[in-house]
Design goal:
Elements (H helix, E strand, L loop, with lengths): L1 E6 L14 E12 L2 E11 L9 H4 L9 E13 L4 E14 L7 E14 L7 E15 L12 E10 L4 E11 L10 E10 L2
């Protein structure tokens, strides 16, 4: 069991660590077998719901009119080592947000998910490849109005290869694609190539 608490005003003596915005986190992880790991996550937040990804609507659920947004977020994660070389994983997340200072307490629901595949010791010992298919956070319901709900579905596709050149040097080329950015089919796909070099001493 892991517990965490994040406060944006911890250094302000007039507000204290329990003043809004804040976020409380709890995660329970279990390993029922040597090749399986499962975890569930719960986050309670007040004016601190930042997904970091997804559509603009996931960050502005109530047209920037609410100053008291309470959110309960739930997540489930799993990893299964199918063989010494292959590991399959996945996660799903659900967020329920409510604006407590607006008439009728409008609420919104956000869903995200991903499936991950890792292949170890590919080409060279210590090297590995990774693949991800997932849906960035998407507003699937919003009682504030249909115009604040994502109507289409975007996908995040990613692949990378971590090449362990020496004990001290690794190079990781990768590519990720975002289809229908902003969960809008009228937006063209985004392609981004990356190369990361890691020196270890």
């Amino acid at each position: 069991m892991s517990l965490g608490y994040i406060s944006s005003n911890a250094g302000n003596s007039e507000k204290g660590i329990f003043a809004s915005p804040y976020r409380a986190i709890a995660q329970l992880t279990a390993e029922p077998t040597e090749t399986t790991a499962l975890s569930v996550t719960y986050i309670h937040s007040h004016n601190n719901l930042k997904t970091g990804t997804g559509s603009e609507l996931t960050s502005d659920r109530f047209n920037d009119e609410a100053d008291a947004i309470v959110a309960n977020s739930f997540g489930a994660e799993a990893a299964w080592q199918l063989s010494p070389v292959i590991t399959l994983g996945g996660r799903v997340g659900f967020i329920h947000a409510k604006a407590e200072d607006l008439p009728a307490d409008p609420n919104a629901s956000i869903i995200t998910w991903a499936v991950l595949l890792a292949l170890r010791d590919i080409g060279r010992k210590g090297s590995f490849a990774g693949f991800t298919v997932g849906q960035p956070p998407k507003v699937t319901h919003n009682s504030f109005g249909d115009s604040f709900k994502d109507k289409d579905t975007s996908l995040h596709l990613e692949a990378f290869y971590h090449l362990q050149v020496t004990d001290n040097l690794a190079i990781t080329p990768g590519l990720f694609v975002i289809t229908s950015p902003e969960h809008n089919h009228s937006n063209g796909s985004i392609y981004v190539g990356t190369v990361r070099t890691t020196f270890t001493y």
